[in-house]
Amino acid sequence: MVKALPGWIGLVTVLLLIGLSIWLFALGLPDAPWLRPSPVLLAASAVLFLVACICCNGLFVVQPNQARVLVLFGRYTGTVKADGWYFVNPLVSKRPVSLRVRNFTSPQLKVNDANGNPIEIAAVVVWRVVDTARAVFSVEDYNAFVEVQSETAIRHLASQYPYDDGLNEGELSLRGSAEEVALALKKELQDRLEMAGIAVIEARISHLAYSPEIAGAMLQRQQAAAIIAARQKIVEGAVSMVEMALDMLDQHRKVELTPERKAELVANLLVVLTSDRAATPTLPLAR
């Protein structure tokens, strides 16, 4: 394993090599014009200067929330994640990998929900790299891998749930169970991206709608369901009010009602209470 040293050690090494190269170059020059220069000293000076230039390649800086993956002759030798100035073997390649939190917004995908209805869905995935070695060596391009796997997970998730509340009580749906669906999406994404050394921080649906070809029909269905639910509440309230009125008449005993009159009273009260228009009173004709 290659160990990264503080950058000042590399800088001092480079300066010493350059200084030694200059000193040997000075020694290799003749003191007088008629003397020949020393080829050995001049060659050693050139070699030391070349080594100093190569050693400069071993100096590198790691920014905050960034890492450098070190590879020596095709072999992974470690990762430097702490920010700072470092020096390593100049022959080691240093590939930068960002550790910052990133967002991926999927395009609007057209899929079928659990009931077979075509819907449009999109999601936002918040992720970051936690294992640099797997991110670099396990997949070809981890950014493209996140995009492809996110779209695949969104399509699979949409096919597991109905768009709206199902017929069975307590059944999860894409629109009515946002938290549960978000947790399921996050778990599926984490399972898919684990091999690339990526951690999913959050995943949520950002767009959800019926496809345009059925949006009108589904809107009418939702409106009809809302009207039915409202009418049911009105009927329940009207029945309870009629029962209360009959009980109060019986308790005060001010009016004696025959079964026929009671049935007529109940019918009139239900008509008045459940009608969506104001009641119009009518007077019986005198005989």
Low-confidence stretches: none
Percent of residues in helices comes to 40-55%
The biggest beta sheet reads: 4 strands, antiparallel
Number of domains: 3
Please write the CATH class name of the largest domain. Alpha Beta
The tally of strands reads: 10
Rg: 40 Å
Annotated CATH architecture of the largest domain? 2-Layer Sandwich
How far is the N terminus from the C terminus?
114 Å
Number of helical regions: 7
Which superfamily, in CATH terms, is the homologous superfamily of the largest domain? Band 7 domain
> Looking at the structure, what is the overall shape?
rod-shaped
* Helix/strand structural class: alpha+beta
> Taking all residues together, what is the mean pLDDT?
81
From N to C, what is the helix and strand string? Answer: EHHEEEEEEEEHHHEHH
The share of residues in extended strands comes to: 15-25%
In CATH, the topology of the largest domain is named Tetrahydropterin Synthase, Chain A
Domain Band: 57-222
Protein name: Band 7 domain-containing protein
Transmembrane segments: 7-28, 40-62
Keywords: Membrane, Transmembrane, Transmembrane helix
